[in-house]
Amino acid sequence: MEGNQPTRTFATAPAPGAMAVDFEERVDFRRLHEYRLRRARQALEASDLGALVCFDLNNIRYVTSTAIGEWTRDKLIRCAVLARGAEPVLWDFGSAAVHHRLYSPWIEPRNSRPAVTTLRGAVGPAAGLSDIAAAEILDVLREAGVADMPVGMDITDLPTLFALQRAGIEVRDGQQVMLDARQIKSKDEIMLLSRSAAMVDGAYQLVSEALKPGVRENEIVALVNDTLYRSGSDDVESVNAVSGERCVPHPHNFSDRMIRPGEQAFFDIMHAFNGYRTCYYRCFSVGYSTPSQRDAYARAREWMDAGIDLIKPGVTTDQIARLWPTAQDIGLASEREAFGLQFGHGLGLALHERPIISRLNSLENPMAIEEGMVFALETYCPASDGHSAARIEEEIVVTADGPQIITLFPSQELFVTNPY
After folding, report:
1. Is the peptide bond before 251 cis (omega within 30 degrees of 0)?
2. Same domain, yes or no, for 247 and 148?
3. Are 207 and 311 within one domain?
4. I need a labelling partner for 257 at 20 to 30 A (CA). Which of 22, 157, 241, 335 fits?
5. For the chain, how many structural domains are there in total?
6. Which string of b and e fits 314-326 if b means at least 16 CB within 10 Å?
7. Residue 15 belongs to a domain
8. Residue 215 belongs to a domain with what CATH number?
């Protein structure tokens, strides 16, 4: 390992143990629920919508503090409605509604209902289930006195959208309202994000020990999955593992490629702890590093540090994006091709929340950085050898005094694993 100690230090957000104890204040989940529901209500009141209809699992979890498994992510089988002045109503998958009546007392029992779902169209239109669902949503809107107001929806399938329209409901974009609500994190959210990152700190220690010639990318992916699930992860969403000639251009995936001596390899670990996610890259050289690899890493680190040094409340995202190289500077034809390489994105219950920082969108549509935001910054630099590349990512909490970094595995200089 070369130069493993960072040249700067930042205070870090607490990353307490996962258990509830009587001798420390840790995450207060009821306080978390009240904060999130209050934020959603405030965002709704600030809009021209009468209610929010949520099929996005992140939004459902935000307003109801319920989750029944990552397998529901793409099924559109759960729905929550938050109307002005009313309690959330949750339609859940079959017996999960009964489970929540027993174990989720913050939801009124009558508001935990079995869903009417087509399973993304597997139940055909002739069954009329979409119209039944729309009618039940309309009943909730009427009870709340907002049936004559437009509703905001985050995501859905077309049969449900058409059924709501047939029921006379005006549907607008509700995702923007929910993203407004989720933008500023509470003390409890920051602790969960920090704990989630701490789990990846430990995973990277094991990666650094395992990363040697002859190991395949998919074996590292398996190691990380095993480590994180044993540590209490809700969901290992993805592990990108990229080595050797696959580093240029960045493919954003993993393969069964065998890693060889002197190669560069970088990884992105995306997982969730109690729903709160990481996006956490680290880059290594295997056995030894070359001058071109070290030079690429130094430049990627310079771009990263320039962005971090600028972060404080009131700075706008275009100021950060302008510090980064253009697409052409890193060998790509357009900012669309380079999107996600010199990049920033909010973290929370979703992998991509606000702010989104890139040269593609931020230069002409900047937004202000605010205290309480949590986001990741990512940089990428191809090496002069034509096949190596450096990739770094840090997760940052914005405080009144500046940035707090919560991704703590060493990254200030290029890490060489199992050096010769």
Report:
1. no
2. no
3. yes
4. 335
5. 2
6. eeebbbbbebbbe
7. no
8. 3.90.230.10
207 lies in the same domain as 166: no
27 inside domain: no
Size of the chain, expressed as the number of residues it contains: 420
Task: List the chain pLDDT tens, one digit each, 420 residues.
Answer: 344 444 444 557 899 998 889 999 999 999 999 999 999 999 999 999 999 999 999 999 999 999 998 899 999 999 999 999 999 999 999 999 999 999 999 999 999 999 999 999 999 999 999 999 999 999 999 999 999 999 999 999 999 999 999 999 999 999 999 999 999 999 999 999 999 999 999 999 999 999 999 999 999 999 999 999 999 999 999 999 999 999 999 999 999 999 999 999 999 999 999 999 999 999 999 999 999 999 999 999 999 999 999 999 999 999 999 999 999 999 999 999 999 999 999 999 999 999 999 999 999 999 999 999 999 999 999 999 999 999 999 999 999 999 999 999 999 999 999 999
Structural domain including 338 reads 187-417
Domain assignment present for 298: yes
Same domain, 266 and 169: no
Distance between CA atoms of residues 339 and 333, nearest Å: 11
H helices of 280-420, in order, are 291-310, 317-321, 335-338
Helix (H) or strand (E) holding 355: strand 353-357
